[in-house]
Specification:
Structural class: alpha/beta
Strand content: 15-25%
Shape: globular
Order of helices and strands: EHEHEHEHEHEEHEE
Largest sheet: 7 strands, mixed
Strand order of the largest sheet: 3-2-1-4-5-6-7
Length: 222
């Protein structure tokens, strides 16, 4: 197997798209201001919603940010990404399908986090509490978080990393969501860092090569 290849920049430039409150965004900001600061930095945050909490977090952190007026406009999005010289694009709770031209331009450099163990409980319309409700309705015993490379379809790209979370007797969608979100907060920044450093890459064969280093992480209560 060919060794993973690092991004051209010694310190990768990360752009983030988010639609909601931005807790995964906050996890990324804290990681790349802390243990991952030598690997990458967040340089731009965009949202399809002007009122999104993610943009409030961006402003508080002093990071360039914009409202993406038309999420289907690939030219607008690519123009902004090129202006900030983004190396990686990360979807952190972004609920819109990324235009195909953007997917192609960022092939192997575009990641998404999803609150289940894909390919289970993914696809168009499967987000937020809908995912956890479906997990409980189907009687699944294990769920978790997935970070995957993005292709032209919802939640179908090659899986970069996963973290399982047990489903407890008596779980509600809310209690399950809380534990899965903690897994997302740990898994997403480390996976992004692994891709930025070249430890993990999407190969020409469409398969993921390399592993996300996960040493010394706190246990998630199961």
């Amino acid at each position: 197997m060919k060794a993973p290849t690092a991004l051209l920049r010694a310190r990768a430039r990360i752009a983030i798209l988010a639609s909601g409150d931005g807790s995964n965004l906050q996890a990324l900001l804290e990681y790349f201001e802390g243990p991952g600061r030598d690997v990458a930095s967040v340089v731009w945050i965009g949202s399809n919603r002007a009122e999104a909490g993610a943009l409030v977090r961006a402003r508080a952190a002093g990071i360039a940010n914009d409202v993406v007026a038309d999420p289907d406009d690939a030219t607008e999005l690519l123009t902004r990404l090129r202006a900030v010289r983004a190396d990686l694009l990360v979807l952190a709770g972004y609920l819109k399908l990324v235009p195909a031209a953007v997917v192609h331009a960022f092939h192997g450099r575009l990641l998404n986090v999803h609150p289940s163990l894909l390919p289970a409980f993914g696809g168009d319309g499967m987000y937020g509490m809908r995912v956890h409700e479906a997990v409980l309705e189907h009687g699944a015993k294990v769920t978790g978080a997935t970070v995957h490379f993005v292709d032209e379809h919802f939640d179908r790209g090659a899986i970069a990393a996963q973290w399982p979370v047990s489903v407890r007797d008596g779980d509600t969608p809310a209690t399950l969501a809380e534990r899965v979100l903690r897994a997302e907060h740990l898994l997403l920044p480390r996976t992004v860092a692994a891709v930025a450093s070249g430890a993990v890459r999407l190969g020409a064969d469409g398969r993921v090569h390399g592993e996300v280093p996960m040493p010394g992480l706190p246990d998630i209560p199961q």
